[in-house]
Amino acid sequence: MSENRDIFRKEYVESRLNTAPGSILIASSINQRIAAYASVLIIIMIVCFLYFGEYTKKAFLEGMVMPSSGLIKIRAPSSGFIEDLVVNEGQTVESGKPLYLINSERFDISGTGVQSALLKSLSQQYQMLESQLDYELKMSSIKIEELNGEVEKLESEIRSAEKSLELAKQKTELKQRTTERYSKLASEKYVSEISYQNELIDLVSLLSDEESFSSRVSSLEKQLQVVNHQKDYWTIQKDVREKELVRQLQALEQQEIELSAIGTTTINAPVSGIISAVVVEQGQAITAGDTVVSIIPDMSDFLVDLYAPSRDIGFITEGQEVGLRFAAFPFEKFGIQKGKVVQISQSALLPSDIELSGQIPKDIGEALYRVTVELEKQTVTAYGREEPLRVGMAVSADIRVEKRHLYEWLLGPIQRIREKVQ
């Protein structure tokens, strides 16, 4: 047994019997501690970045520079050719002043102008109608003058007949008194019966004269009434005929004006301003509706009209700041210009509406909303100089439409899946 016990050394046996009071610690290096601290710090920074960091979604819009009062496009009212161009680009023009002349004359096989021939025919008709009007008015005036003479004559005869009638009445009245006295005297035998009979005969004669004058007055008054009716008829007929002929003259005059307008038309400026563009040359053929001249009205500042699709318009509001990049002034050299949204169209514009206004973005496959931007300044600083903007300059813009935290952006797909599941 003692031999078996001596198989292991005494020190080994004692070390097995005496256990250590704690675990073994391995000393770490300084690099390991730095790496651990850095990892923790990075994790904290990532969490803070995701929580406090924000992601801004921007809408990229396109448009062009426009005057605040709108760009006035003067279009051709009819087909023809430009006979004369009165204005040039950059020229100041006043309202009502001529801009250009359109000649729409057509010619027949012989080379005669159709409008010229028609105008000549209308002029001849006008002259003939004027002569007819003068003749009829003159004849009507003569007839009315004759009737006025008859009226005056009849009135004079009536006055004379009335005087004669009045005298006859007075004579009859006196003769009646005399006859009454003769009747008394005859009854008392102071005068003879023959004398009394003679007085009666004279009285009857006077009564007959009175009746004759009365009949003449009545006859003359009837004649006067007829003549007055004739005069009224001719006066009315004269007015009616005059109005009818004047109306025909006005119709011929209107036809002449319309034909003259078809032949050569002068187009005047509707507003005062600056000629921004002349898109035709003298002698050039044009069709009705073609744009010939564009005018920037006086006292117009420049604005930018941008066009936003429906997917972006919901988050664009008035007062938002806009970053503008003018194609004529590369932003890499001259920076981004600032602006502010001042107006948003209430309804979408169809492509045809935008084309009519002369503002056609590159992508126009859908209806767009107009976003009007007020510029911070009307010029662009380039190489130390203030360069003016020009109507029609192409512009691209950035507008912030949405701002979200980064963790919301990362968790967005999960949130959408949850909403679909629910």
Automatic annotation (TrEMBL):
GO terms for cellular component: membrane. It is found in: Membrane. Residues 137-171 form a coiled coil. Keywords: Coiled coil, Membrane, Transmembrane, Transmembrane helix, Transport. It is a single-pass membrane protein. The chain crosses the membrane at residues 34-52. Its main location: membrane. Residues 73-294 form the Multidrug resistance protein MdtA-like barrel-sandwich hybrid domain. It comes from the Bacteria. Signal peptide: none annotated. Pfam families: Beta-barrel_AprE, BSH_RND. One of its GO terms (biological process) is protein secretion. InterPro entries: Beta-barrel_AprE, MdtA-like_BSH, MFP, Secretion_HlyD_CS. Gene3D superfamilies: 2.40.30.170, 2.40.50.100. Belongs to the membrane fusion protein (MFP) (TC 8.A.1) family. This is Toxin secretion, membrane fusion protein. The lineage of its organism: Bacteria, Pseudomonadati, Pseudomonadota, Gammaproteobacteria, Vibrionales.
